[in-house]
Specification:
Organism (chains A, B): Marinovum algicola
Distance between the termini of chain A: 102 Å
Order of helices and strands of chain A: HHHHHEHEHEHEEHEHEHEHEEHEE
Oligomer: homodimer
Helix content of chain A: 40-55%
Pfam family, one (chains A, B): LacI
Strand order of the largest sheet of chain A: 2-1-3-4-5-11
Protein name (chains A, B): Transcriptional regulator, LacI family
Mean pLDDT of chain A: 93
Low-confidence stretches of chain A: 1-13
Number of helices of chain A: 13
Structural class of chain A: alpha/beta
Keywords (chains A, B): DNA-binding, Repressor, Transcription, Transcription regulation
Largest sheet of chain A: 6 strands, parallel
GO molecular function, one term (chains A, B): DNA-binding transcription factor activity
Chain lengths: 348, 348
DNA sequence: CTGAAAGCGCTAACAA
DNA sequence: TTGTTAGCGCTTTCAG
C-alpha cells in the first residue's frame, strides 16, 4: 500500500527525477531525456508536453547522473597557490567568466601553505574534471602522468615547469625582465638592484634572468639582489630595508612584482628620506590596480592576464573535445606601462 | 574474441573502476567499496588485499558515482559578484581552506556584470551541491525556495537580504559605521562627509546609516555624500573629485571601503594640495593589506573576514549533516584599526 | 565479515 | 520520432 502511492516528495525530499516527469507527461523516460539533450530528435508536441510536466514539477536534470553516462562533467579544476597577490583575483574573474561562457564550471582548490598539491590533484581528479589548470608550485610527474593516462588536459598557468609533459601558458617573463632592464638603463641611474620574490618561483628566476641580461649587455652590472619571502607588500618592506641598507645603495631597482615595488617606494621615502624618482628609480611587474595610484605612479610591466586565460581556456576546450597527443606552450608578450617612477636622465 | 579479453585500458582510456580492482584482488565488488568507505566493517586482510590491487591498478574511486547513491557530493557552491575588491581574494582563501579542511570542495561561480544570478544558482543546483553561499546582489525568493525545497542550506555572505528565509553571516556594518563616526568626531574636524559605494549595496546603506547616526547624535551633520559607481580605486578617484569640489568642502570623511579612502587621500594630496591629516581626516573600511602602507596609514574598520567564513562553514556543515527548519543570522563585530589618517584635535 | 543483487538518475543503442 | 533495455561506477540492503 505504500510503494505505488508514494509521491516523489515523500520518497526523497522532493528530488524530482526524469522518471517523475515522464510519468506526469505520460511518456517514456527517454523522451524526457531527449527533450533535455540539445540536438536530439524530438517532435514539437512531445517537447511542449514534456516541458509542461517538467515546469509543473520544477524538474532540473541531475548533471552528475548524466556525467556518469556521458563521461563529461563540464567541470574544470583550478588549483591556485597564491591568494595574496591581487592579480589572482583578476585571474579568477577571467577564468570563471571564460569557462562559464563555454558551459564549464570551476572547481577551485587552494594549495597555499600547508596544503599538498599532490593530494589536491588527486581529489580533484576523483571528481572526474574534464580539464585541469594549475598555477602552483612544482607539478609532479605523477600528476602529469595521471592526467595523461586519463586524457585530462592539464595546463600550467603563469608558471614554467621544468619538464614539458603538459601544456603551458605564461607571460614571457624573461623578455619582460629585459624590457625592465632597458627602461631602467635610460634613467641615468647606474647602481642596479633586483628585488626578487621567493628564489624558487619561476617568475622570479626568469624575470631576473632577463633583467640581468639587459643590464650586462649594456656593460653594467646588477650590484644588489634581495629575495622577499613572498610576493606581498609586507614581505617587500623587509626586503626593501635590506636592499636600501647596503653600503652601496642601488638607485635603479627592478622589482619582481608591483607589491614589492610599492613597498620599496614607501620604505625609500618614509624610512630613508629619499626623493623619488630623483634618488631612486623603481620598476614593477604586473600592473595591479593600485600601481596607477597617485601615491605610486609605478612604471611597470603588464602581463596580458586576460589573453593568458583565454589561451588556457582555448587549449582546454579544444583538447577536451578532441584529445590529441603532444603538448603546447604559449608564451605571451608583456607590455611596458609608462608612469612616473623612473628618473629622467640628466640633460648632458 | 574481443569482449572477454578486453582490458580496462582498452575499454576506456584506462579508467579503472572498483570492478577492475575486485577482479584483480579476486574479491567481490562490495568488498572493494567497503574498503574505501570509512567506517565499514572489513577484515584486516581483506583491506590489504584490496588496497594492494587498488594501488597496483592506480584505482581512484569515482566520487560522482558515489554521490548518486549517497546523495552527497561534498560540493559547496560559492557565488561571488565582486572580483574587483581584494578582500574577496582573502574571502576565497579562507573559504577554500575551511571547506577543504572539512572535506568539502568549492564550486565557484561568477555573477558579476552580465551574468545572471538566478541562472547561475540554477546551474549550481544541477550539480547537487550540498550547500550554497552567495555573496552577490539580491537573492530572489525563487532561489531561496528552491534551496529550501531541496534541503540545501543557503547562506548570504557579507550581505543582508531583505527577506530572511535564508541564513545570513555578515559584519555589523551599522555598528562599524558608528565607530567610524565616533572616531572622526574626535579629530576636531567638523565638516563630515560620506564617500559611499553603489547606493544599492547593503554595505553602503548600513555603514552610512551607522555613521550618520553617530554624527547626528553628537549634534553634528553629514554635509556631503557621494556615491562611487563601484568599490574600486578608479571609481573612488572620480568620486573624490566631486566630493572635494563641493563649495563647503568636507574635512572629515568616512569612506565605505578602503579603496575609496585611498583614492580620496591621493586626490586630496595630489589634486587639491591638501596636507593630510591636517586638512582632511579619512577613515576607511575593510583593512586591506595596503591600508597599512606608508603612503596611506589608513585608520579603518576591519571586518572579521576569517571569523565570518568560519561561521558560514559552521552553519553549512552543521545543516548539511542534520537538516533543520529555521534560519539563523550571525552578525559579527568589526574592530577599529588605528593608524594615522585622522587629525589630532588641537590642544584647546 | 563477505557476496549477490538492486538500485541512484541519467543516456545511448536498438528496435519498433 | 518514440519506447525498451542496458548500463555508467558506485553503495547498500539482505542473505549467508
Amino acid at each position: 500500500m505504500k510503494e505505488s502511492t508514494e509521491t516523489p516528495s515523500e520518497r526523497n525530499a522532493s528530488r524530482i527525477t526524469a522518471m517523475d516527469v515522464a510519468r506526469e507527461a505520460g511518456v517514456s523516460l527517454s523522451a524526457v531525456s531527449r527533450v533535455f539533450t540539445p540536438g536530439a530528435s524530438v517532435s514539437a508536441k512531445m517537447r511542449v508536453r514534456v516541458m509542461e510536466a517538467a515546469d509543473k514539477l520544477g524538474y532540473q536534470p541531475n548533471v552528475l547522473a548524466r556525467s556518469l553516462m556521458t563521461q563529461r562533467t563540464n567541470l574544470v579544476g583550478v588549483i591556485l597557490a597564491n591568494f595574496k597577490n591581487p592579480i589572482y583575483l583578476t585571474v579568477l574573474d577571467h577564468f570563471t567568466r571564460a569557462l562559464q561562457a563555454r558551459g564549464l564550471r570551476v572547481l577551485l582548490l587552494n594549495v597555499s601553505d600547508g596544503q599538498d598539491l599532490e593530494e589536491m590533484a588527486r581529489l580533484v581528479l576523483q571528481y572526474s574534471v574534464d580539464g585541469l589548470v594549475v598555477s602552483a608550485g612544482s607539478i609532479s610527474p605523477h600528476i602529469t602522468e595521471q592526467c595523461h593516462k586519463r586524457r585530462i588536459p592539464l595546463v600550467a598557468f603563469a608558471r614554467r615547469p621544468r619538464r614539458a609533459n603538459l601544456h603551458v601558458v605564461c607571460a614571457d617573463n624573461a623578455a619582460g625582465g629585459r624590457v625592465a632592464g632597458a627602461r631602467l638603463l635610460q634613467s641615468g641611474h647606474r647602481r642596479f638592484g633586483f628585488m626578487a620574490g621567493p628564489s624558487t618561483a619561476s617568475t622570479t628566476i626568469e624575470r631576473g634572468k632577463g633583467f640581468r641580461a639587459a643590464i650586462e649587455e649594456a656593460g653594467q652590472g646588477v650590484i644588489a639582489t634581495t629575495h622577499a619571502r613572498e610576493y606581498t607588500y609586507t614581505a617587500g618592506v623587509e626586503s626593501a630595508r635590506k636592499l636600501l641598507s647596503r653600503a652601496e645603495r642601488p638607485d635603479a631597482v627592478f622589482c619582481a612584482n608591483d607589491l614589492l615595488a610599492m613597498a620599496l617606494m614607501d620604505v625609500a621615502r618614509d624610512e630613508f628620506g629619499l626623493t623619488l624618482p630623483r634618488d631612486l628609480s623603481v620598476m614593477g611587474f604586473d600592473d595591479v590596480d593600485l600601481a596607477a595610484a597617485a601615491s605610486y605612479r609605478l612604471t611597470t610591466i603588464r602581463q596580458p592576464l586576460e589573453a593568458m586565460v583565454q589561451e588556457t581556456v582555448d587549449i582546454l576546450s579544444h583538447r577536451i573535445n578532441t584529445w590529441s597527443e603532444g603538448w603546447e606552450t604559449r608564451q605571451l608578450a608583456c607590455t611596458a606601462v609608462e608612469r612616473a617612477s623612473i628618473a629622467e636622465p640628466p640633460p648632458d
